């Protein structure tokens, strides 16, 4: 008889419509699929078409749900990368309108667990009503979650202005200087839905799920992980930092190009001294001018250290592709 630990599950993955969220969810999906679990990755058609080329497609069932139309959201837009920040609230409204179709899929597909993102604060309650377990997967680290605090603080009245988030909160019980700059929070205010704030979304995602996970590990953030377990009053499970998977030819599936890249990069890193490599990445949607990119390049060069600099090959604010704005003399690897 199969032990409880060996039971194969049907797990639905439902990430937010941003590449910085879609890709970590995909990495977790790959890992779980390689363990033999049935994975249903739920998103919109355009996002799924982009993900299929970098995934173990035979191991993952991609579920396409058309994004409902919302006044203010341009037609055919399905991710934050296609929008200015002040238009993102309309994408959140459209995402919330996926609730009926997601609910229908979970209800009629024998799903055991659903792994959800911050924006769909309604998902844990839907899962509970359907007798399904839910996991909130936070794509950032434990320190970020610790800074925002328990659901009671997220729903309270103490922090309602951008400047309220520029100081370390009182519940952080270990030495920390983690806090936002005011301009960072002012910018974030522009992307929040005026009907349901991101703080309300985070609170709902945490308080109604079975347990919380994040991209971190106890070796890196032991204090923050311990604090989260205390203030949430439920299991908190770090998943690690989620580098690209590197398990080739499992279940008869050839390794994809992204994993081949990681193998080469891993071997290069293994030849470097510990703590000697600088990693520079500005995220999937940050855009810099050519002048700022060159300034950053000069700083990297002056450090004299081996480095990995991730540059997105997409139009920047000056309309130049990322591969064209790197100064001469830098070796590029696509």
From TrEMBL:
Keywords: Glycosyltransferase, Transferase. GO terms for molecular function: UDP-glucosyltransferase activity. PANTHER family: GLYCOSYLTRANSFERASE (PTHR48049), UDP-GLYCOSYLTRANSFERASE 91B1 (PTHR48049:SF60). This is UDP-glycosyltransferases domain-containing protein. The lineage of its organism: Eukaryota, Viridiplantae, Streptophyta, Embryophyta, Tracheophyta.
């Amino acid at each position: 008889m199969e032990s409880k630990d060996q039971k194969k599950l049907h797990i639905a993955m439902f990430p937010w419509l941003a590449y910085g969220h879609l890709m970590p969810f995909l990495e977790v999906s790959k890992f779980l699929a390689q363990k033999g679990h049935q994975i249903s990755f739920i998103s919109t058609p355009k996002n799924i078409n982009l993900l299929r080329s970098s995934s173990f497609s035979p191991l993952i069932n991609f579920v396409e749900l058309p994004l409902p139309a919302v006044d203010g959201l341009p037609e055919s837009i399905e991710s934050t990368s296609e929008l200015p920040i002040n238009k993102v609230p309309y994408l959140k409204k459209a995402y919330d309108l996926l609730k009926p179709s997601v609910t229908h899929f979970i209800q009629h597909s024998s799903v055991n667990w659903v792994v959800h993102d911050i924006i769909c604060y309604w998902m844990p309650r839907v899962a509970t009503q359907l007798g399904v377990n839910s996991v909130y997967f936070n794509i950032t680290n434990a320190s970020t979650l610790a800074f925002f605090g328990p659901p009671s603080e997220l729903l309270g009245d103490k922090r309602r202005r951008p400047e309220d988030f520029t100081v370390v909160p009182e519940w952080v019980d270990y030495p920390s200087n983690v806090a936002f700059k005011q301009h960072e929070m002012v910018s974030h205010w522009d992307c929040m839905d005026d009907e349901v704030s991101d703080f309300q979304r985070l609170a709902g995602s945490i308080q109604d799920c079975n347990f919380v996970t994040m991209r971190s590990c106890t070796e890196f953030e032991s204090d923050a992980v311990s604090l989260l377990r205390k203030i949430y009053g439920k299991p908190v499970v770090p998943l690690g930092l989620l580098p690209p998977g590197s398990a080739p030819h499992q279940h008869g599936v050839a390794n994809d190009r992204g994993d081949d890249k990681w193998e080469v990069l891993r071997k290069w890193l293994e030849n470097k001294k510990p703590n000697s490599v600088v990693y520079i990445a500005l995220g999937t949607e940050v855009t810099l001018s050519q002048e700022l990119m060159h300034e950053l390049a000069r700083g990297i060069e002056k450090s004299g250290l081996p480095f990995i600099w991730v540059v997105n090959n997409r139009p920047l604010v000056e309309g130049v592709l990322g591969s064209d704005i790197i100064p001469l003399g830098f070796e590029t690897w696509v």
